[in-house]
């Protein structure tokens, strides 16, 4: 992922670090502040059933989603790692230092006023990010973008926008608001959401959390 961020023109004052476990002593090893968490998880039958029920429940009850949340749909197969990264960075763009010619900075500026569907279409045409994603995937990194090639694994981003914790998944019709959070408690709150994913599939071991932390 580090190479990927560098190629997209982001200064290395934020870094992706592995979260080695969900216990407090392991979370205490993650450098703070943390501004996003990416969760890699298996798409199983149990998860798909839950996803359908969750969508119906939210459509019936409604939820608050701040208009400042940057959300995009996923239309490119195997691009969930890229979209997870864009969600993580886009919702923290005020904290990031971009190089002047950063392809990601330009993509975000161009797409801010677009709908989630329009952003997905724009990414399809946006060579600079797609090519970067593909080249980093081919380098065979063991971490993020290459994992997309195993289609049964999926990435989502968890971010704090305006004091609420949002789950951003381009396969879902909208962001999911998981309740209140703060800069200080964000990592712990995000990990609680990750634990729910794990509890729904207790036989599964293929879960991996990565934090976007201050370097």
From TrEMBL:
Gene Ontology terms describing biological process: protein deubiquitination; ubiquitin-dependent protein catabolic process
Site (Transition state stabilizer): residue numbering on this chain: 74
GO cellular component: cytoplasm
Subcellular location: Cytoplasm
EC number annotated for this UniProt entry: 3.4.19.12
Catalytic residues (positions): 80 (nucleophile), 154 (proton donor)
Name of the molecule in the record: Ubiquitin carboxyl-terminal hydrolase
């Amino acid at each position: 992922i580090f190479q990927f961020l560098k190629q997209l023109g982001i200064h290395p004052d934020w870094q992706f670090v592995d979260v080695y476990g969900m216990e407090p002593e392991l979370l205490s090893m993650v450098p703070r502040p943390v501004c996003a968490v990416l969760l890699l998880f298996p798409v199983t039958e149990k998860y798909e059933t839950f996803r359908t029920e969750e969508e119906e429940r939210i459509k019936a009850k409604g939820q608050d989603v701040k208009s400042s949340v940057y959300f995009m749909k996923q239309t490119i197969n195997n691009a969930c790692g890229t979209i997870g990264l864009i969600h993580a960075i886009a919702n923290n763009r005020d904290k990031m230092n971009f190089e002047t010619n950063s392809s990601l900075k330009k993509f975000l500026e161009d797409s801010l006023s677009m709908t989630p569907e329009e952003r997905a279409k724009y990414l399809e045409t946006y060579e600079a990010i797609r090519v970067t994603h593909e080249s980093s995937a081919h380098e065979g990194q063991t971490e993020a973008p290459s994992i997309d090639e195993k289609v049964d694994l999926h990435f989502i981003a968890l971010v704090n926008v305006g004091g609420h914790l949002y789950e951003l998944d381009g396969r879902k019709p909208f962001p999911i608001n998981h309740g209140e959070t703060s800069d200080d408690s964000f990592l712990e709150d995000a990990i609680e959401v990750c634990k729910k994913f794990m509890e729904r599939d207790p036989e599964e071991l293929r879960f991996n959390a990565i934090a976007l932390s201050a370097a």
